[in-house]
Structure formats: structure tokens, C-alpha cells
Amino acid sequence: MFTGIVAAIGKIESVKPLEGGSFAGVRLDINAGGLPLADVALGDSIAINGACMTVVEKDDSNFRVDVSRESLNCTVGLDTLTEVNLEKAVTLSERLGGHLVTGHVDGLGVVRKFEAVGESYELVIEAPRGMAKFLALKGSIVVNGVSLTVNRVTDIGTGQDMVCQFSINLIPHTIAVTTLRNLEVGKQVNLEIDLIARYVERMVSVGAAGK
User: Fold this and answer.
1) How many Å apart are CA 28 and CA 15, to the nearest integer?
2) pTM of the prediction?
3) Paired sense of beta strands 51-58 and 45-48, if any
4) Predicted confidence (pLDDT) at residue 30 exceeds the cutoff of 80
5) How many Å apart are CA 171 and CA 147, to the nearest integer?
6) Hey, is 188 helix, strand or coil?
7) Which domains does the chain have, with CATH numbers?
8) Residue 182 contacts by C-beta under 8 Å, 6 or more apart in sequence?
9) Which residues make Cβ contacts (< 8 Å) with residue 84, sequence separation at least 6?
10) How far is CA 197 from CA 2, 88, 117, 166, in A?
11) Cα gap 206→77, rounded to integer Å
């Protein structure tokens, strides 16, 4: 489990295909930046841009993870030499500064607006249609591993043509300490819905089906 509070910005320094041809995944060598690795053991989990990955090798400054083809198909930004948001798995002794995050990406959003508004930035993302029901005013959402609060939700169109856009206010601190500062209109981002919303939807749908 994670909190969505980014601990450091790292960088993917190499992407090497694993054995198995086009259906195989890749091994990432990631410079941990300011993320301390002394207490990280092989087999521990680290969230990389919001995707939970297992450490398979490490040294003083870098760690390596194997990313399956399935994970590559469901995420963005894990197969290029780029900066990434990093967070170690939370322990029971830590503050829950963000919200409960599993590190399982639910879908890819598309940036539709990223503009300065006063000292902050407004970020508008178009979410996959299936995620619309999980987005709510003042609810939580994870974008590239960052726990954020939804300020506005707008459903455009109806039925199969409906698209859902949500707006987020990014304060200067968030811009300074995460890779969200690198976003551009048209870029894809990893999204994870709120864990509680996921269970509520399941309970409601099963309850309705049983009537």
C-alpha cells in the first residue's frame, strides 16, 4: 500500500527487454534520486509513476525492477528514459498524508489543460468513460502516483459518446516535488481511482442485482 505522497523524483536510466520476444516485458534501471535505499530489501515494493513494482536488484543509488508486458500495456511512462515519481510502500508507523493507494493503475487519462492560474496550476484530465462513476467533487484520485483532490467533474455528452473530464488545482509545492511539472496537453497519465469508491461501487451494484 502507498499514500500517493511522492518521496522523490527518480529517473529511468535504462530499459532492457527481458527474454521472451515481443511478448516479454522489460527490466528498468532507475536512479532513485533522493529516495533512500538503505532500508529497501529485494522483494520490496516501490511505486513508479503510480505503478507498484518489485525491487529485484539494487545498489547504493539505483534499483531495478522487471515490468511485465501486461503492465506496460496498462500504463504509460515505464518504457522510456524519463523522470518518474517514486514512493516506497507505507508502513503502519507512518502518517497517511494522502489517501490509501494500491499502486494498481486503473486506466490512462489524457491531459486536456495545464495552465498557470495565479500561483497554482489548473490540470484538466479526460478520464476513460468507465472511470467516470468513481470521480466525485472533493474526492481523491492518483495521477502518476500523486494523491490529488478533484475540484470539478464535468460529463460531456451522453451514452457511448460521453466523456468525463475532471479538474485539479496543483499548488506550487506539488509542481516543485513531482514530475507533474512536465505535463503537456495531449500527454497520457496513469490514473488510480479511490480504493473506497471501488468497494462502494461493488457493494451497490451487487445489492442492486440481488433485488
Assistant:
1) 5
2) 0.93
3) antiparallel
4) yes
5) 13
6) strand
7) 8-88 (2.40.30.20), 107-209 (2.40.30.20)
8) 83
9) 9, 10, 11, 12, 30, 48, 49, 77, 78, 145, 179
10) 16, 23, 30, 16
11) 35
